[in-house]
Design goal:
The complex is a heterodimer of chains A (381) and B (142). Chain A has 381 residues and is an alpha/beta fold. Chain A contains 13 helices and twelve strands. The two termini of chain A are 19 Å apart. The chains are: A alpha/beta (381), B mainly beta (142). At the A-B interface, α4, α5, β5 and β9 of A face β3, β5, β6 and β7 of B.
């Protein structure tokens, strides 16, 4: 079977762009990705795309050209981008196509998401009485984690501080100013122990990646990045996930644990081999827990790692080098692909002020979404 | 005349009752307990209705610090009148862990592992002037 490469990457700046719809930001990202590898839209044989609130991805053909290609819409909550990438990977791996696009974009209204109980198979009372908020779940899950592993709440502030510090170096990020640890810790408490600055905000943006079989990739570029693994897993009975009126008495490992193991096995590498890492940081607590779930440390080791700077751009496991969701905001359809965009940029050595030094060779991404699913990738140049 | 009290959802807890209990379903084959007792988790013929304990331990908690969006939230508060409320999971020994509102929103009163007890609290007034009630858990004193 052929290897699968990423040959072109494109992004529309995250944050707020009042003058453009979500779809327009998606189309912008596709054009940027085409330019990046010197292709034109008619060269593209297929596409997978997704958006939670920005419209139908397949309608991007109106902007990009009516060339008759297969264009499948993907919808997997926050893991939408990861799922689009997985689908595109499989199509090339299977030998069905040589060149295609994975695209994700979104445009959300301001403020926390308001979920509909019925669309998650829940009764209305759950939303009506104020239990159906993603923010609450994040607060409760990290509250338990800090308690069980004896971590101080300040560790949450350190994650956010790093995100803003990295965001400052990223021209496509939304939040581009450093925020002092004191300010983070003392900002409005949204969901104890998480304060305002520890959360990402729903936002806008678009990312597109052009994938190709190795043979096709060699035709178009001399710097392909190999997609060594893509995996996606949903939750098992007993994991602690968002929008759960009940939990089983015994905890099962999170879906991320299974998705990351699968990705490492596919790629034949381990967490210790990663030179650059992007993991889902919907809020600070998520980054803490995902560090362990993805195998980068043991439960409870996070505070020490953060305090010694291991996850800084200059550290031994550079993490969320583009500022992550906290500095970029969360356009649901685009976030998972933003992570891959960042790793490709880093592996090419084109990340500018936030470039990880010593020529990173191997990178990792991880995205997590409701109602308990996770998608991971391993990339190499 | 006292306002009539109606549950936020029929079948969520026993009501009216002097000792209200949450209603769940137990899967016969596995013994797993699901709450609420709705159809999606397990088929009726493979399970039986069970009433849950009213005492348990605080598994984790948070304080909801801002007014949730409506929909889906239907609380009576406005941005001006909103007061943070506690939310937690209660571990009911040998049964299941349930998500619930808490009667306190003071972090100092909450500690993982503490004893908690179920209660019924007024939530809002409905269109017919009834008092809509829901379940919550409160710290066991003393």
């Amino acid at each position: 079977m052929t290897d699968v490469c990423i040959i072109g990457i494109g992004i529309h700046k995250f944050g707020r762009t009042d003058s453009m719809s979500g779809r327009q930001q998606g189309a912008f990202a596709v054009r940027e990705a085409l330019k990046d590898c010197g292709l034109e839209w008619p060269d593209i044989q297929f596409a997978f795309g997704g958006s939670a609130a920005g419209g139908n991805a397949d309608s991007l053909v109106n902007e990009l050209g009516l060339t008759g290609i297969q264009f499948v819409n993907v919808s997997n909550g926050c893991a939408t981008g990861g799922s689009a990438l997985l689908s595109a990977y499989s199509a090339i791996k299977a030998g069905q196509y040589d060149v295609g696009v994975a695209v994700g974009f979104d445009k959300h209204p301001r403020g926390a998401f308001n979920a509909d109980p019925k669309s998650s198979g829940l009764e209305t009372w759950y939303g009506e009485t104020g239990l159906m908020l993603t923010t609450q779940f994040f607060g409760m899950k990290i509250q338990k984690y800090l308690h069980d592993h004896d971590l101080s709440p300040e560790v949450l502030g350190l994650v956010a501080q790093k995100a803003f510090r990295n965001g400052k170096l990223n021209p496509n990020a939304w939040r581009r100013e450093e925020v002092a640890l004191d300010t983070i810790m003392n900002s409005e408490m949204l969901s104890d122990p998480l304060t305002k600055y520890m959360f990402c905000s729903p936002a806008e943006g678009g990312v597109a990646l052009i994938l190709a079989s190795e043979k096709a990739a060699r035709r178009y570029t001399n710097r392909p990045v190999f997609l060594r693994a893509v995996s996606m897993r949903t939750r098992h009975y007993g994991s602690f996930e968002v929008f759960s009126p009940y939990l089983a008495l015994q905890r099962a490992p999170a879906p991320t644990v299974f998705a990351s193991k699968a990705a490492y096995e596919m790629a034949g590498v381990g967490p210790e081999d990663m030179d650059v890492i992007q993991i889902q940081d919907t809020e600070s607590g998520a980054e803490i827990m995902h560090m362990a779930e993805n195998g980068f440390c043991k439960d409870g080791e996070q505070e020490k790692l953060l305090r010694e700077g291991a996850t800084e751009i200059t550290g031994r496991m550079p993490m969320n080098t583009d500022g992550g969701c906290i500095a970029n905001g969360e356009p649901i359809g685009a976030s998972g692909l933003r992570q891959v965009y960042e790793v490709v940029l880093q592996l090419r050595g084109e990340a500018g002020a936030r470039q990880v030094q010593n020529n990173p060779k191997t990178g990792y991404t991880h995205v997590y979404g409701a109602p308990g699913l996770s998608a991971c990738t391993v990339l190499q140049n | 005349m006292a306002k009539q009290q109606v549950p936020v959802q029929e079948g969520l807890f026993t009501w009216p009752s002097d000792n209200p209990q949450l209603i769940a379903r137990r899967e016969k084959k596995t013994g797993r307990v699901y709450f609420p007792a709705i159809h999606n988790y397990v088929a009726d013929e493979d399970s039986e209705e069970v009433l849950l304990s009213t005492r348990g331990k605080l598994y984790t908690w948070t304080i909801q610090g801002f007014l949730p969006k409506n929909p889906p939230y239907k609380g009576p508060e406005t941005v001006e009148t909103f007061k943070p409320y506690g939310v937690g999971y209660i571990e009911l020994p040998g049964e299941v862990i349930v998500e619930t509102r808490l009667t306190t929103a003071d972090p100092k009163e909450l500690k993982i592992g503490m004893e908690m007890e179920m209660t019924i609290i007024p939530f809002r007034e409905d269109e017919k002037g009834n008092e809509v009630v829901t379940f919550a858990f409160k710290p066991v004193k003393g």
